[in-house]
Amino acid sequence: MKVAVFSTKNYDREFLQTANQQSDNKHEFVFFEPRLTLETAPLAAEFPAICAFINDRLSAEVLEHLASGGTKLIALRSAGYDRVDLAAAARLGMTVLHVPAYSPRAVAEHAIALILMLNRKLYRAYNRVRDDNFSLEGLLGFDLHGSTVGIVGTGKIGLCFAEIAKGFGCHLLAYDLHQHPACLELGVKYVELPELLAASDVISLHCPLIPATHHLINSESLQHLKPGAMLINTSRGGLIDTSAVIQALKSGKLGYLGIDVYEQEEELFFEDLSNTVIQDDTFQLLQSFPNVVITAHQAFFTRNALANIAQTTLSNINDFAEGKPCANQVKES
Ligand code: NAD
């Protein structure tokens, strides 16, 4: 099957080609560097399948354009599908497949990395020592052991995160619509969101971005926060109302912010913009805080995860090509 791959980086090419070589069915991948938008959708004309990543735009308009060019399959190389208009895909008779779990540990471990980095101020310590400044002023942290960690969303990633936090000796609280038996076994206590926010020293977000969770962290919910708490978001930028979080950072209500995702990341992340003037003032303001660490959507980025993404994407495309039902199909709920 001919597949137009959008948002291609060298690592996508390498891992997809390796998976294709190992697959019984071989597909013809054509790699395009640009993101999928209305302007770049014509590149996929006459391709029965396209392969898209996190920030590719799969709005109704883009899907209509792809469908008119003969595209029938959207193979996502991601777990999240919040940028796909699933109703439009269904109306156009397009199949949408995703990679539900490629390495929940990769994301959970990155969330922990952000916590350690912020708590022990490693970003400042690293630069200081390189500058022969061996002062410890301003680097004071706290023991994670004995602290309370609140997990919002205890699915695959939330569970891995809970296991690691348990290893540090943290008390674990969680908020989810469903209680995960493995989390209960670990000793996680499920509470409502306001109680979790009020009791936690560290809050880590691991729920999907859906209408019900859009701006879950907003000026109202931030009122409940334990003063000086740490907020970590490795899930999706839209879970947080960035302006409200900036106000909470300014007032000191929020003590630390670690994010791997940002609501307006589409225009920034995955590109080298070091020679350009960033026009996003909110992002620039966030960067200016001494207690904020931002990584550019790299939580998934381990070789284990990339190999799993490529293998599952190949197996998804194989299922579709052979007309088999695919367990990784996403539909509007
Ligand atoms: P999952 O589906 O296994 O778990 C999500 C959990 O959130 C479920 O337990 C679900 O019940 C819960 N949930 C749903 N609605 C909720 C609500 N309104 N309030 C509270 N909890 C709710 O998903 P996962 O594999 O653990 O992934 C979680 C998210 O992580 C994904 O949706 C994706 O956005 C993000 N992610 C980020 C990266 C990255 O590189 N930064 C990589 C992969 C996934």
Task: Characterise the protein shown here.
With 333 residues, the chain is α/β, with parallel strands linked by helices. The protein has 2 domains: 2-102 and 302-321, NAD(P)-binding Rossmann-like Domain (Rossmann fold, 3-Layer(aba) Sandwich), CATH 3.40.50; 104-294, Rossmann fold (3-Layer(aba) Sandwich). Helices cover 36% and strands 15% of the residues. The protein contains 12 helices and 12 strands. A 7-stranded parallel β-sheet has the order 8-7-6-9-10-11-12, sandwiched between helices. It has a 5-stranded parallel β-sheet with strand order 2-1-3-4-5. The site of nicotinamide-adenine-dinucleotide (NAD) has 30 residues, from helix 4 and helix 6. Nicotinamide-adenine-dinucleotide is lined by residues 79-80, 101, 104, 107, 152-158, 175-178, 206-209, 212-213, 234-236, 260-261, 297, 299-300.
CATH class categorisation of the largest domain:
Alpha Beta
Helix count equals 12
Q: Which of globular, elongated, flat, extended, rod-shaped describes the shape?
A: globular
Percent helix, as a range, is 25-40%
Q: Which class best fits the helix and strand makeup?
A: alpha/beta
Biggest sheet, strands in spatial order? 8-7-6-9-10-11-12
Percent strand equals: 5-15%
The stretches of 5 or more residues where confidence is low (pLDDT under 50) are none
Task: Tell me the Rg in angstroms.
Answer: 21 Å
Biggest beta sheet attributes:
7 strands, parallel
Mean pLDDT over all positions: 96
The CATH architecture of the largest domain: 3-Layer(aba) Sandwich
User: Do you know the CATH topology of the largest domain?
Assistant: Rossmann fold
Number of DSSP strand runs: 12
